[in-house]
Amino acid sequence: MHISIPKTIVKYIDGKAINTYSIIEEIGHGGFSKVFKAVCDETKLLYAIKVTSLDEFSKDNIQSLYNKEISILSNLNHPNIIKLFDSFSDNYNNYILQEYCDGHSLKHLIEKRGKIHESEVSKIINQVVEALIYLHENRIIHRDIKLDNILLSSNGVVKLIDFGLSAQLTYDDERRHTFCGTPLYLSPEVICTSLNGHSYEVDIWAIGITSFILLTGHAPYEPSTTSDIYNLAKTSNIKFPSDIKLTFLAKDFVKSLLQFKPDNRPCAEELKLHPFINSQSYSPHSHKRVSVCHSPVFPENPISKFEENTDPNKNSNKISCFITRYCDCSEKFGVGYKLSNGSIGVCFNDSSRMLMNESCSQIYYWAGYQDMNPVLLSLDETKDSKRVGIIKKLSQILSKSPAKEQKTCYSLTKLSHVKYIFKSPNGDIMFRLDDRNVQVNFVDGKKLVVLYSEKKLALTLSKSVPETLIDIKDMSHSSEEYKRYQKAKAILVEYTNN
User: Fold this and answer.
1) Which secondary structure element, helix H or strand E, spans residue 129, and what is its range?
2) Are residues 52 and 37 in contact, defined by beta-carbon separation less than 8 angstroms?
3) How far apart are CA 104 and CA 152, in angstroms?
4) Is the pTM of this model over 0.70?
């Protein structure tokens, strides 16, 4: 890659020189660009200028990647994401004027030090996750998170850079199918195009690889081909070097990210719950709220929300989470339930709710309906001992095995839980989950599961696993499924009116 760069770069508008930037030194390079440290002669402020030769634009996709990076960066404003100030061109090059970071990339840090102490890795990754939460909230997948693209300033502030491969989604369930990224950091679903595309989870996988390298000083595997990467990633058998002492929390954090199935990886918000990067949140006495940023959504018009059209191409034939058993103690404290993933939950009469994970090692508590951020509790909690005692008892009632203290299990799963429960006058009970799916257990022993995003439903016996999904729009008005669906909507309307 040859880029002819003058000693001074001048920005012109209508033939008039506006700003002049003097090049100091080269500080980085990528596949088709170089990055220089420069000073503005007028303001004396330092900048990083990313330079791309106009000749490179004749190559496939380069101009598209360049324009996309500018489009995405120009709309971002986060302390852990590099800022874009300007972009312009001359007769030779295109220039992107960015924030200057007076540090180095994590790749430089690893090359210099070999590995990094856990406490430092925790602080670094915590900031990367903050940036990722912001990106995913804005429906942006970075798709090239790696050591080279994470800068660490002299005062310890992380900056995520290089958005040339990023994707801006139009809706949350959209899937992308482009094979792109750096081989070592590629997730299985990117490599294997038959896995129905990819989404935000590719960034989670990349953080897992990045964390492993930071903690150990080398990659979890040294593949020579993408086939090797796929085969190694598929086993999910990440082996940590025996000569490096790592805590259980550090290993568990990495393993939770490097799950072969994308759905088994925590989302960016859920990463903040892990004690490795947010140790204060795990203290049973601190009651620090962790940042889970799902906005509470309650339908103004429940019928239209049931039938709202989202992704017409989405084809899901599996119900990931549903209620398998429940215990109605509403006259005393509320309703307890067990989910198909093994978690135990309870919706209390005062609108608070609690969830115990499937390993019976962690308890999440939301004090009110509008609370987005749960408090993370332990099984020996004293402040909320009464509620903790209730969910432990429910675990004994609803599960074959009682809750046991398992201090060595922190693996993250999706925090699926019931957000509220409503009983109709005739005894039908409706569960509304956090992902807006709805389950209704009817008094005659049948249950209806309505998938909000997929716009599908399943009707089965209460003790059976719902398997056959039907498109709501294709239902016959004379079918039992349609009649049950109408009853479910009527229950939801009754709830909103009350």
Assistant:
1) helix 118-137
2) no
3) 6
4) no
Cβ proximity of 411 and 340 under 8 Å: no
Question: Could you say which DSSP state residue 255 is in?
Answer: H
Question: By CB neighbour count within 10 A (0-12 exposed, 13-18 middle, 19+ buried), where does 187 fall?
Answer: buried
* Residue of 90, 144, 172, 434 marked catalytic: 144
Q: Dihedral of CA 42/66/134/26: which sign?
A: negative
pLDDT, one tens digit for every residue, the chain (498 residues): 567 788 899 998 888 888 999 999 998 887 678 899 999 999 999 999 999 888 877 776 778 788 888 989 999 999 999 999 999 988 888 999 999 998 889 999 999 988 999 999 999 999 999 999 999 988 999 999 999 999 999 889 999 998 988 889 887 778 888 888 888 888 888 887 656 788 899 999 999 999 999 999 988 887 666 677 767 766 666 788 888 889 888 998 998 899 888 888 888 888 887 888 865 332 323 333 333 332 222 233 333 333 333 333 344 456 778 898 888 888 888 999 999 888 999 999 888 999 998 888 889 998 877 676 788 887 877 677 889 999 998 888 887 544 443 333 344 445 789 988 988 888 899 999 888 889 999 988 889 998 877 788 888 876 677 778 888 888 888 889 889 999 888 887 777 666
The Cα 477–Cα 337 span in angstroms is 32
Paired tokens of 333: 């404290």
| 67 token code pair | 């324009």
CA 383 remoteness from chain centre = 31
User: What is the spatial distance between Cα 175 and Cα 186, in angstroms, rounded to a whole number?
Assistant: 16
What is the b/e burial string over 115-141, where b = at least 16 CB atoms within 10 angstroms of the residue's CB?
bbebebbbebbbbbbbbbbbbbeeebb
Tell me the residue type at 346. Answer: V
Q: Is 144 a catalytic residue?
A: yes
Quote the crossing angle between the two packed helices 118-137 and 201-216, to the nearest 10°: 170
Question: Which structural domains are found in the chain, ordered by start?
Answer: 8-99 (3.30.200.20), 104-277 (1.10.510.10), 302-497 (3.30.1120.30)
Other CB atoms within a 10 A radius of the CB of residue 314 amount to: 16
Contact 204, 189 (CB under 8 A): no
3-state percent breakdown (helix, strand, coil) of the chain, nearest 5: 30, 25, 45
Counting every residue written for the chain, the total comes to: 498
Phi, psi values for residue 403, rounded to 5°: -65, 135
β-pairing, 150-152 with 167-168?
unpaired
